[in-house]
């Protein structure tokens, strides 16, 4: 028995696809490993491949070149001893990050002097954290040895790109020990709900296959080696299992992804995970970030509050006037120091004098212009000399680079009011005043912003006055305990938040030279520590953060993205519940929720009060339970307490709300919320965000969508789908998600139907012919059925659409039915099973009826009807015709018609060209007669044997082979001669049964049955059996003597015109294969008589 060849085709397609993907990966790896870099040696520069770089090598990396391995930054061609690198391929952030060369090596006169010193680098073991590093650089050829601490600012990680200058570094990690490789984990293998449902249906089909095979063997009577027949039926009916389903679905998903990326209505959309496009059509919960997702993340400075006076967009000209006064006066007014240039006075015990408004505005604007990590970048202009380019501070070619758009907005605002940042490096900063004068400041220390501290600071020295000032800015929650007591900060923060503004508190502290030197000594000592360096450094910095002077409160506006309101309304009408998870303040999040119509203005909002213990959480949950149809707003701290004690109750109540807003959420909490929804509801979730803090929830969700925003590409690279604007989510879900799910459901059911219908026909065929385990179709027919004849029309269903995209967008309520899974369920599966069984039975029995009455070939009729049925089923299912669907239908039908000319051995009427229903080792043909004539043959042989037994009950039949020689003596019975093989097999089996009963002494039980049901003909020969040496006069009797008296001669038996006898020089020697007999290739009666006997078949 042969294994169906279509299974090999499916396996070949899968292997080919995997081989192509693997070859592409090999090419990418080879391209990266073959990049050439300059290696610095004692003899000079040599070129090495990136794959040959080792730890300890000195590597030179040019501008715009990728860094091949993790290195410590030793030297640079920049005069300031620093450079900028781009890290968008490492952490997704698009801002340029400054890096500092080791001062000991940067001060060396020449590049070759690196080989004249004796030094070593101590580095910690490889870590996952890309934002921290601890190490030391020690030079031993000095007295005393020089020790310099190394931090993240002194490192160059692999996969980053040098943005300015040329750098030289010493390699510390290579290969799998680099930060980029260690942070490259295998992506989560997301499996769609449709795939899980199809897997369950496939399991059910496998059970049906086993059950049907057992039934067939049982009805066969467990004759012979029943286990062998069981395996034969398992192979014959294996089409029940949709083996080609996976290939069709994978190709369909690739088509859906191509359609999404080619949709002009959502330009820039990228499908990064092609295995779950159907998930876009099954979503129930959509969890979205606020900043950069619902908003543009393009900050615009809106308000400056000084405690007693507030400046808005309409009063910004007053700030320019106040700022211009201090720089235009040579003497300070009585209100206090307002000029930036008066000499520094020693602190005194004199009582504080209330400053004037101009002085306070000046100090606030100067603090905003100095406290940041913004770097101005100037575009190179052709024709500008290199010397003049360094001093070209014109506004036309200047842009700002920073890690946060908030800082860029603040620096741009200071430029608009007259105080411009013109240059910045690691050691100095220059500002240009309203009158064009340059103000130079030395940057002594910089404390970057962290998510733990929620603030950043800088210590600067005014070069003109030698004043040292510590500036600090951060969130109100972190700064309220640091600044001096005031009665307006908390209230004004709430007011700005209700207006939808993002707030920052700015403060300062003046330091004496002694205070700074003490701080710098302790700070340097903490940085040299190799254990708990971060904690020790933070403790030293916190020693300065107390009783700071509150300067101002700033408010910037993050405007909503285009079409956010209609998009959210469309998603709500589609039955999708939207949750907003943000790290912003409660007031700001609530304001954005209302302005974006996430929460309607007429809808009540329940603000979950802050709770700290189990009792408070219990009381607040009871209060929330009494509310109905209201939106929930909860903070991250309260959420943490409730999830600790009342996880199930909180999730159950929150799922009943039309909208939920979670503020002050950490990235870990966002991912935890997604996981809770999946576990408690079992529904499909989608997370959408734009920043690195959204990556965790994007990867946790069933479907992740990333937006390429101002905060970088990290979320976009980690997501399953990448879009450019939030408004594209509506079309992505309502149009493409819905179409992908319905198309895959139809495709999967048609592939299963295609296997069920041909398996039904095989089962009917086997049952008609006494449950014989012989194939109905084989060879190219089986391969062509699943590929050339039906694959293209069935696969063309991926182009079908029940409604137009415009209608789906206009009526998003159509999306609701998809969440219930009605397009593919056990109910629809059972309907398709019944349809397949009905169609397969009708086709097979219809072919047998036509075969009996008109002698048309059973294989030709049934297979042609099967192909036409599949094509018509696809045509009747299509809702919207595409020209490729018509091509697929016509092409498949044309291929089948054309194949008739090449596959005549399957459809030709001559018996010689009819292939076997099962091939033996020699490929010779076997023939099964029609059921009616088969029955006549069985009855004739049964009457012959019964008559012989009636006449000679004591005779002994020792060899069944003699029966196979009877019809070959003469050809007086034309029809019987044409079916010699069948007659021989049936007669041999009957004789074997007789021998069995005689040997066991049970002949007495069988003889009454034969005497009661068999009438012994009078004209039976008396020399039947070995007494006649295997020969009989049966062949010379009239043809009617072989037929049952009550059954007329079958069609094709020409008894009125007896055929001339033909010589039989060599009797048949049948070989027993399965339940049939392999016939010799030589026709003893000649081809003419055979064609005349089977005329019309």
From TrEMBL:
**Residue numbers spanned by region Disordered:** 325-356
The record lists Mg(2+) as bound by: 289, 291, 690, 694
Q: Is-annotated flag, keyword Transmembrane?
A: yes
Q: What is its main location?
A: Golgi
Enzymatic class: translocase
SUPFAM superfamilies xrefs: Calcium ATPase, transduction domain A (SSF81653), Calcium ATPase, transmembrane domain M (SSF81665), HAD-like (SSF56784), Metal cation-transporting ATPase, ATP-binding domain N (SSF81660)
The cofactor named in the record is: Mg(2+)
Q: Which residue spans traverse the membrane?
A: 156-175, 204-224, 230-249, 751-773, 779-799, 829-849, 855-876, 883-903
Matching entries from InterPro entries are given as: ATPase_P-typ_cyto_dom_N, ATPase_P-typ_P_site, ATPase_P-typ_TM_dom_sf, ATPase_P-typ_transduc_dom_A_sf, ATPase_P-type_domA, HAD-like_sf, HAD_sf, P-type_ATPase_IV
Topology of this chain in the membrane:
Multi-pass membrane protein
Asked if Transmembrane helix is a keyword of the record, the answer is: yes
Catalytic activity, per the record?
ATP + H2O + phospholipidSide 1 = ADP + phosphate + phospholipidSide 2
The EC number of this protein is 7.6.2.1
- Domain (P-type ATPase C-terminal): give its ranges: 717-910
Q: Which GO terms describe its cellular component?
A: endosome; plasma membrane; trans-Golgi network
Q: State where the protein is found.
A: Golgi apparatus, trans-Golgi network membrane; Membrane
GO molecular function terms noted in the UniProt entry: ATP binding; ATP hydrolysis activity; ATPase-coupled intramembrane lipid transporter activity; magnesium ion binding
**Keywords attached to this entry:** ATP-binding, Golgi apparatus, Lipid transport, Magnesium, Membrane, Metal-binding, Nucleotide-binding, Translocase, Transmembrane, Transmembrane helix, Transport
Pfam families per UniProt: E1-E2_ATPase (PF00122), Hydrolase (PF00702), PhoLip_ATPase_C (PF16212)
For ATP, which residues are the binding ones? 289-291, 407, 449, 473, 502, 582-584, 664, 670, 693-694
Domain P-type ATPase A, residue spans: 45-179
List the catalytic residues. 289
Q: Which family does it belong to?
A: Belongs to the cation transport ATPase (P-type) (TC 3.A.3) family. Type IV subfamily.
Would you tell me the protein name for this molecule? Phospholipid-transporting ATPase
Q: Which organism is it from?
A: Enhydra lutris kenyoni
Name of the encoding gene: LOC111154218
């Amino acid at each position: 028995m042969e294994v169906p060849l279509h299974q090999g085709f499916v396996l070949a397609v899968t292997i080919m696809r995997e081989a192509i993907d693997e070859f592409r990966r090999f090419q990418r790896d080879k391209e990266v490993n073959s990049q050439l870099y300059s290696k610095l040696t004692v003899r000079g520069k040599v070129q090495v491949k990136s794959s040959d770089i080792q730890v300890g090598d000195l590597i030179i990396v040019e501008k715009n070149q990728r860094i091949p391995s993790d290195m410590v930054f030793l030297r640079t061609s920049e005069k300031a001893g620093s450079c900028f690198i781009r890290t968008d391929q490492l952490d997704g952030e698009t801002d340029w990050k400054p890096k500092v060369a080791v001062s000991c090596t940067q001060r060396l006169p020449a590049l070759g002097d690196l080989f004249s010193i004796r030094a070593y680098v101590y580095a910690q073991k490889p870590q996952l954290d890309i934002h921290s590093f601890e190490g030391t650089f020690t030079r031993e050829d000095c007295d005393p040895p020089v020790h310099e601490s190394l931090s993240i600012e002194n490192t160059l990680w692999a996969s980053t790109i040098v943005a300015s200058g040329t750098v030289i570094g010493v390699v510390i990690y290579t290969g799998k020990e680099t930060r980029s490789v260690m942070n490259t984990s295998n992506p989560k293998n997301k499996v769609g709900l449709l795939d899980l449902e199809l897997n369950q249906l496939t399991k059910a089909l496998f059970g049906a296959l086993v059950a049907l095979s057992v039934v067939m063997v049982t009805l066969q009577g467990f004759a012979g080696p029943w286990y062998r027949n069981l395996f034969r039926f398992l192979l014959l009916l294996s089409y029940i299992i949709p083996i080609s389903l996976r290939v069709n679905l994978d190709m369909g998903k690739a088509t859906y992804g191509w359609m999404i990326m080619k949709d002009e209505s959502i330009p820039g959309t990228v499908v990064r995970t092609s295995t779950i496009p159907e998930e876009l059509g099954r979503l129930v919960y959509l969890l979205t970030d606020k900043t950069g997702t619902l908003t543009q993340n393009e900050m615009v400075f809106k308000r400056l509050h000084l405690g007693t006076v507030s400046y808005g967009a309409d009063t910004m000209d007053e700030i320019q006037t106040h700022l211009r006064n201090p720089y235009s006066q040579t003497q300070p007014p009585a209100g206090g120091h307002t000029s930036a240039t008066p000499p520094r006075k020693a602190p005194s015990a004199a009582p504080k004098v209330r400053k004037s408004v101009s002085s306070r505005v000046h100090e606030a604007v100067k603090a905003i212009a100095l406290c940041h990590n913004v770097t101005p970048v100037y575009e190179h202009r052709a024709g500008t000399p290199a010397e003049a380019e360094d001093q070209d501070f014109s506004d036309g070619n200047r842009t700002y680079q920073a890690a946060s758009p908030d800082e860029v907005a603040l620096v741009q605002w200071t430029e608009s009011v007259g105080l411009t940042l013109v240059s910045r490096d690691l050691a100095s900063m220059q500002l240009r005043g309203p009158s064009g004068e340059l103000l130079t400041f030395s940057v002594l220390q910089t404390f970057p912003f962290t998510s733990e501290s929620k603030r950043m600071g800088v210590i600067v020295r005014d070069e003109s006055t030698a004043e040292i000032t510590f500036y600090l800015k951060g969130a109100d929650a972190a700064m309220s305990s640091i600044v001096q007591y005031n009665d307006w900060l908390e209230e004004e923060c709430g007011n700005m938040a209700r207006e939808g503004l993002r707030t920052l508190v700015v403060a300062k502290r003046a330091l004496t030279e002694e205070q700074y030197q003490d701080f710098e000594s302790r700070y340097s000592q903490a940085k040299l520590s190799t254990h708990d360096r971060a904690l020790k450094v933070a403790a030293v910095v916190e020693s300065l953060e107390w009783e700071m002077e509150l300067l101002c409160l700033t408010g910037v506006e993050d405007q909503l993205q285009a079409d956010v309101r209609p998009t959210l309304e469309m998603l709500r009408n589609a039955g999708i519940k939207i949750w907003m998870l943000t790290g912003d303040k409660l007031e700001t999040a609530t304001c954005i929720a209302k302005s974006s119509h996430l929460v309607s203005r007429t809808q009540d909002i329940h603000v979950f009060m802050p709770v700290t213990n189990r009792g408070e959480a219990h009381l607040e949950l009871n209060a929330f339970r009494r509310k109905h149809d209201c939106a929930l707003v909860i903070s991250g701290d309260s959420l943490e307490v409730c999830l600790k004690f009342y996880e199930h109750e909180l999730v159950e109540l929150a799922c009943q709300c039309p909208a939920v807003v979670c503020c002050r959420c950490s990235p870990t909490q966002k991912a935890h919320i997604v996981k809770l929804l999946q576990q408690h509801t079992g529904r499909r979730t989608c997370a959408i965000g734009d920043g690195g803090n959204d990556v965790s929830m994007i990867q946790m969700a069933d479907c992740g969508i990333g937006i390429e925003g101002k905060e970088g590409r990290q979320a976009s690279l980690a997501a399953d789908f990448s879009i450019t604007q939030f408004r594209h989510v509506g079309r992505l879900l309502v149009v493409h998600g819905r179409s992908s799910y319905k198309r895959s459901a139809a495709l999967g059911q048609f592939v299963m139907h295609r296997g069920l219908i041909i398996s039904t026909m095989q089962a009917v065929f086997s049952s008609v012919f006494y449950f014989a385990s012989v194939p109905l179709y084989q060879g190219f027919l089986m391969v062509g059925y699943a590929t050339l004849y039906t694959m293209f029309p069935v696969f063309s269903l991926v182009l079908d659409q029940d409604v137009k995209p415009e209608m789906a967008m206009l009526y998003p309520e159509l999306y609701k039915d998809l969440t219930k899974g009605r397009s593919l369920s056990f109910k629809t599966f059972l309907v398709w099973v019944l349809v397949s069984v009905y169609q397969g039975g009708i086709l097979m029995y219809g072919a047998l009826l036509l075969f009996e009455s008109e002698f048309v070939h059973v294989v030709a009729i049934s297979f042609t009807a099967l192909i036409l049925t599949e094509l018509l089923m696809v045509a009747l299912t299509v809702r919207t015709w595409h020209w490729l669907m018509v091509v697929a239908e016509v092409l498949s039908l044309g291929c089948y018609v054309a194949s008739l000319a090449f596959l005549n051995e399957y459809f030709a009427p001559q018996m010689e060209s009819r292939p076997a229903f099962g091939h033996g080792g020699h490929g010779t043909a076997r023939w099964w007669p029609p059921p009616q004539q088969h029955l006549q043959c069985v009855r004739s042989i049964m009457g012959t044997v019964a008559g012989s037994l009636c006449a000679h009950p004591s005779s002994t039949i020792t060899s069944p082979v003699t029966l196979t020689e009877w019809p070959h003596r003469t050809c007086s019975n034309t029809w019987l001669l044409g079916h010699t093989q069948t007659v021989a097999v049936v007669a041999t089996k009957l004789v074997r049964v007789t021998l069995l009963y005689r040997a066991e002494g049970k002949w007495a039980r069988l003889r009454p049955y034969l005497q009661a049901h068999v009438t012994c003909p009078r004209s039976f020969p008396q020399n039947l059996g070995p007494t006649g040496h295997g020969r009989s006069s049966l062949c010379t009797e009239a043809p009617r003597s072989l037929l049952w008296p009550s059954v007329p001669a079958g069609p094709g038996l020409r008894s009125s015109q007896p055929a001339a006898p033909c010589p039989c020089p060599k009797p048949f020697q049948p070989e027993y294969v399965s339940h049939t007999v392999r016939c010799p290739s030589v026709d003893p009666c000649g081809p003419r008589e055979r064609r005349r006997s089977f005329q019309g078949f």
